[in-house]
Specification:
Blueprint (H helix, E strand, L loop, with lengths): L2 H15 L4 E4 L6 H15 L8 E6 L6 H16 L4 E6 L2 E6 L2 E6 L4 H18 L5 E4 L3 H4 L7 E2 L10 H4 L12 H10 L1
Parallel strand pairs: 1-2, 2-3, 3-6, 6-7
Antiparallel strand pairs: 4-5
């Protein structure tokens, strides 16, 4: 991903939608070294851009179960704030990246919600112990995981598209955007 093109795109979408508040992920990757380079490039790219303000840029906490990595993300957060850039944190909750026994690995949160919940809560509590009002977003949250987590400020999911009841689905497995009300499906997903 070209960082400057990405920032331009996010700024353009925010302007076109005419919204006051917007969330955007700082481009990430599961490769920690590449992700670190993306963070460095992003900071350089937004340094003198007034149009990047008014967007809350989310730092994805890959391998956030490791205190040293989490400490780096918190320092990076402050470096963005020093530039006048609004920032927050995003925790991957579909496929969680973890550092375990000296290796980078992944956990499928749908299969291991308790482990993902424990790690996510560690990240939430650690970040908020340093930055009490930190904005924290859940990326790709699953229903099983939602009830296990401490307070998130926001979350996104595509899993509500799957039918949670036969009544709602009317014999179908997934939402049909041309026919169905996505809000109705989402409310059913939350209450299920």
């Amino acid at each position: 991903v070209n960082i400057i093109d990405y920032i331009n795109y996010v700024v353009h979408v925010k302007r076109e939608l005419n919204v006051n508040d917007a969330l955007a992920i700082i481009p990430d990757t599961w490769d920690y070294n590449k992700y670190t380079m993306n963070l460095i490039r992003f900071r350089k790219a937004v340094r003198n851009r007034d149009d990047a303000r008014g967007i809350k840029w989310l730092i994805v906490t890959h391998y956030g179960n490791e205190p040293a990595f989490l400490k780096q993300y918190i320092a990076y957060y402050y470096s963005l704030r020093d530039l006048g850039i609004d920032a927050g944190f995003a925790i991957p909750l579909r496929k969680m990246t973890v550092f375990h026994n000296g290796k980078f690995t992944h956990i499928q949160c749908a299969r291991k919600p308790t482990i993902c919940g424990t790690i996510a809560n560690y990240i939430i509590h650690h970040v908020r112990s340093v930055i009490p009002n930190a904005y924290i977003h859940g990326l790709g949250i699953r229903k099983k995981l939602l009830s296990l987590l401490a307070r998130l400020d926001s979350a996104d999911t595509a899993s509500y598209h799957f039918a949670v009841s036969d009544d709602l689905a009317n014999g179908r497995f997934m939402i049909n955007r041309a026919v169905d009300d996505a809000c109705e499906w989402f409310k059913a997903w939350l209450s299920w």
